Amino acid sequence: MVRWALTLLVLLLAAAAPAGAKDTVVIYTALEPEQITDYMKAVNKTLPNLDVKMLRLSTGDISARFMAEKDNPQADVIWGVGATNVMVFKNAGLLEPYAPKGLARVQPLFRDKDATPSWVGIDIYMSAFCFNTDVAKKKNLPKPESWADLTKPVYKGEIVMPNPASSGTGYLSVASILQRMKEPEGWKYLDALDKNMAEYTKSGSKPCKDTASGERAIGISFEYVAMKMKKDGAPVEMILPKEGSGYEMEANALTKKGKSNAAAKEFLDWAITDEAMSLYSKYFAAVSVAGFPVPEGLPKDISKVVYPNDFDWSAKNRDRILAEWAKRYQK
Q1: 111 strand-pairing partners
Q2: How many CB atoms sit inside 10 A of residue 154's CB?
Q3: Which of 171, 172, 123, 102 has the alpha carbon at shortest distance from 322?
Q4: Per-residue confidence at 249, pLDDT binned at 50, 70, 90?
């Protein structure tokens, strides 16, 4: 009788479960929209049991949203958000350490140093100048080759760059300049750059898109969007500054809310598989697992073109740097 009752209970529970019910995972991301579309085709095919609810904002905005929700968290997973920001999340106690399957394949640079990491990187992106050759020809503007060149009077009103408070691309450029030149010399440089600035944008990709459309001559952006604009036919040249490009890593993490969500962990496991890496490598010169091809037009060895980034310094000093930047340049 007891066995029959248990069998009936199991049957009733099975009947109550909706047919084809999926496991929900809420993901916050700063990946580019076209990348998300590409990646999600694979996710939906490989993980058909997941119902992915995604919020995509720029790095600064998604980070501010996540931090503001700390007492009522909504996200289970952080996917493709700047490592500098993700380290801030860790320091605030908002992440749950998790070692996704296949972690041993990930290169040491691309992961949190703890034995069970709070975050794992997936790719690297770097600052690049977008230079509109048509606009330059009309205005007789020389091609800039360096960060130093951008402060020349000839470029006054011709440059646009992202606001570092809202854009990870903007912050990586500012942080790299301050690390390379040291403070206060770095701030003196940024003061000089500000004199030539036409606009600070909210998005990291917008400076290059504005340059591609002919609105500006020079956009400080990142290499992926520069290459995409050129591939799409815009009269844009990608320039990697000779002093070294700033760079940032996009990283994944499990949140405290996602700790007990098996679907969140399943997604993070997928996010460092060869399938995922092959997708990331279509857009970036370096991904966290070695052996994937570099997209045409990007440097084969990025160590020769980037300025080393102290991620700990960038994370710990982020609030101070952004406050100083806003005081000096926020209109």
Answers
A1: 120
A2: 13
A3: 171
A4: very high
> 3-class DSSP state for residue 89?
helix
d(CA 198, CA 12): 66
9-26 confidence digits (pLDDT tens): 333 333 444 546 899 999
Say if CB 50 and CB 25 are below 8 A apart: yes
Could you give the CA distance from residue 295 to residue 315 in angstroms, rounded to a whole number?
A: 29
> Any idea how long the chain is?
331
Question: Per DSSP, what are the bridge partners of residue 123?
Answer: 250, 287
Give all domains of the chain, ordered by start, each with its CATH number: 20-124+248-301 (3.40.190.10), 126-247+312-329 (3.40.190.10)
Q: Are 218 and 179 in contact (CB under 8 A)?
A: no
Phi, psi torsion values for 234, nearest 5 degrees: -70, 150
User: Three-state DSSP class for 265?
Assistant: helix
Rg over alpha carbons for the chain, rounded to the nearest Å, is 22
> What's the angle, vertex CA 125, arms to CA 42 and CA 175, rounded to 5?
140
Task: Report the interhelical angle of 185-195 vs 168-181 (nearest 10°).
Answer: 130
Give the separation between CA 152 and CA 224, rounded to whole angstroms.
26
Q: Find where tokens 């905005």 sit.
A: 61
Q: Quote the CA–CA distance of 133 and 141 in Å, as a whole number.
A: 9
Query: Which residues, including other chains, have CB under 8 Å from residue 132's CB and lie 6 or more apart?
Result: 211, 212, 214, 216, 217, 218, 234, 235, 236
pLDDT digits (tens, 9 = 90+) for 88-127: 999 999 999 999 999 999 999 999 999 999 999 999 999 9
Phi, then psi, of 42 in degrees rounded to 5? -70, -40
Q: Are the CB atoms for 48 and 42 separated by under 8 Å? A: no
Whole-angstrom distance, CA of residue 320 vs CA of residue 52: 35
If DSSP codes are grouped into helix, strand and coil, which group holds residue 35?
helix
Model pLDDT, residue 21: 81
Asked if 238 contacts 143 with a C-beta cutoff of 8 angstroms, the reply is: no
